[in-house]
Amino acid sequence: MKKILLRCLIIIILLIAIFILPIFHPTGIVIYLRLFLLLLIFFEILKLFKAFFIDRKVSKITSNSATVVFSLFTIFILLEAIFMFIPRSHSADYSLASKLWYDKYWKPINSLGFRDKEPSNNNPVILFVGDSFTAGHGLKSVEDRFSDIVGKELNKNGKKYNIVNIGKPNLDSRAEYDEMRNFLYLTMIKPKKIILQYCGNDIEGAAADNGLIFEGFRPPENINKLILPIGLGSYFFNYLYFLLPREYLGRSYIDYLTKAYKSDKILSKHKNDLILFVDYAKKNSIQLIALVFPFLVDMEMSDSMYVNDIISFFEANKVDIINVSQIARDMPIPERIINKNDTHASKKLNRIIAQRIINKLN
User: Fold this and answer.
1) What angle do CA 273, 149, 337 make, to 5 degrees?
2) Strands of the 193-198 sheet, one edge to the other
3) pTM: predicted TM-score of the whole model, two decimal places
4) Could you give the dihedral angle defined by the CA atoms of residues 112, 92, 271 and 309, in that order, rounded to the nearest 10 degrees?
5) List of residues 6+ apart from 99 with CB closer than 8 A
6) What is the rounded CA–CA span in Å between residue 137 and residue 131?
7) In this structure, what are the phi and psi dihedrals at residue 91, rounded to the nearest 5 degrees?
8) CA distance 204 to 202
9) How many Cβ atoms sit within 10 Å of the Cβ of residue 2?
């Protein structure tokens, strides 16, 4: 009896461990440790099942019920093991599958921390500046990004350019400018062209400077507090949960951005950040192209919120513009985006955008 109680205690400890590990270490070598623990739990449960329901005489109903429970547990162990190796990109990167995606596909990373090859200055440089859209969020290969497609097409046509991509997720406009100046200082590169990619979240820095800060995505108040830890620590349940659209994850952010763009004080500060790019390009005789992205699943809303105003701002400052709303308007939503959980630009849209950039460069 003591052995059985000890085995039960071991199983409980192992179960707690497998649900805690992903919260702190969702990727890397820990995945294989967790796989080993799952197998260990399975064999311990199998021993208990044998001791209670095979080696002992029990009623048929009890035996059948125990067999069903054991089978369900076995299926869960199998699914959990499988979903530890299924990556899926997600717009906000909080799902376990998204963390797996980053671990597998977010490469190459150069010595300066950008998802790009090492920067070179042996040919005229076209510099791509922006956030996750520029970095290629959701695209498994950097070759599918609009920046890399531009470089490939230009060099194929005999024009020798070096394409440099310094896009980073979650940067606002001021942070992008600071990253650019720091990069140019460290590398001594003098770009001939700059493509500045813009999206609605670029106002975050100006909003924060004026006391408006997004507090992050929060689950609903009425969510089951027992289910939440399991969802956070189970790759299978976490994948299923985030596979379905969760309106609460985006609604609060849209409300936050709407408030930011409606504030004259914040918007004025934000445009002062953008004018830094305009002034730098003029001072250094660099062609500046503004690539303005809407929210690809609701372009009318984002056009009204910020796209039209930002386009007018760049036009007033004589900046070349590519309005992605106009490009993507006639494309079905599934063709514009990576997947229903990741609303970054699809391969197809990246290819179309690349051609528009080439036209502007020519």
Assistant:
1) 70
2) 162-165, 125-129, 193-198, 287-292, 320-323
3) 0.91
4) 140
5) 26, 27, 93
6) 9
7) -55, -45
8) 6
9) 6
pLDDT tens-digit profile of 273-329? 999 999 999 999 999 999 999 999 999 999 999 999 999 999 999 999 999 999 999
Amino acid (1-letter code) at residue 356: R
Amino acid at 28: G
Cα of first residue to Cα of last residue in the chain, in angstroms, is: 81
Q: What is the CATH number of domain 99-361?
A: 3.40.50.1110
Distance CA 128, CA 169 (A): 13
Residue type, 18: I
Closest alpha carbon to 94 in 346, 266, 341: 341
191, two tokens: 């770009």
79, 148, 161 from 193: Cα distances, Å: 49, 15, 10
Please say whether the beta carbons of 341 and 93 come within 8 A: no
78 within 8 A of 41, measured Cβ to Cβ: no
CA distance 309 to 304: 8
Domain ranges (residues) in the chain: 2-85, 99-361
